[in-house]
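Hey all, sorry for the wall of text incoming. These are the two entities for the joint prediction.
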Amino acid sequence: MKDMFGMLKKHHKETFQEAVKEGKADPQIISFGDYFVSLRDYFTSSSCSGRIVLMNLNEQETKKEAAFYRKWHRKVEFEEVLSALMENTREDLWFKQEAFILHIGARTLKQANKVLSAMKKAGVRRGGIMVAKQGKFIVELTGSNYMSLPVKSGKEILVSEPHLKFIVEKANTKLERNYRLLGEFEKECRKSL
Amino acid sequence: MKDMFGMLKKHHKETFQEAVKEGKADPQIISFGDYFVSLRDYFTSSSCSGRIVLMNLNEQETKKEAAFYRKWHRKVEFEEVLSALMENTREDLWFKQEAFILHIGARTLKQANKVLSAMKKAGVRRGGIMVAKQGKFIVELTGSNYMSLPVKSGKEILVSEPHLKFIVEKANTKLERNYRLLGEFEKECRKSL
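and here's what came out:
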């Protein structure tokens, strides 16, 4: 039997290292990804460290990659959000602060369970094994800090400037808390995997 | 060896039936819970069908049961949200539309995997096995429709009436979509578990 897990790991390792080289990996996730590259029985795939976005959504609210009007993997300034809102846009714009989402592959169920333990110890409340097959266990985890609201309808900005300021402030606080939680999880993984 | 799973199932069955009798179960989840009561190898525990809430949050944004200022397991009227906002409150108020969250116990990993398959077929994108022990597999699933924003800071209402109207409208649409997805998932479970 082929080493299915080994092939998967090789593939995701290369994808990750490519992304880092091309500057496409979120800065907050590089140390985390590097650590997983060094492990024999785990890998990471398609993960995001958390972000603040302005998103174009039509009536159906279908999300496509093209829907990202702005995307920041860091805290934002009120002015840059406001100036983006004031640009000429057509569809509704939503302001979102999204939590990290991680995908971790493990060779065995026992090892996937170790990820769940690290998750609990770090205080990450949401997550589970989303694929459980011989040679392929994928754990998905997410943080629980988020915000989401419509800020523009057609050409009309819906939020007042003081409200937007308040929202940006809260989103920054939540994003910081999100990165801190991600850091805690990385620490627990380094201890126990 | 004791039938650990059987004891768990009995406990959660009684808790669910008690909640229904006392009118404490979400109406949208009763048919779903009843179905699981009828199965030998599955149970549901602490689930929520999705809701719209006004929540008191302090600076730390710690969520306690007492934090629910209003809680609706249904679509809301603009007027009832506005009048709640106009009441005399102290801490910040957040408006949230939350997706369903379900916990499903399965006797074996194979049966937990069936829940994951039903989930995928129904189009539920977020979920996994959060506990994987001999005789106790718990799958957690959540919908992906949500909104969350601060609407009141101390005594000051942050949203304009037109913005609040727009927000309520979007939240209602999302909540409907959430209930529809929950219905799809129930249908898939009834087909395949």
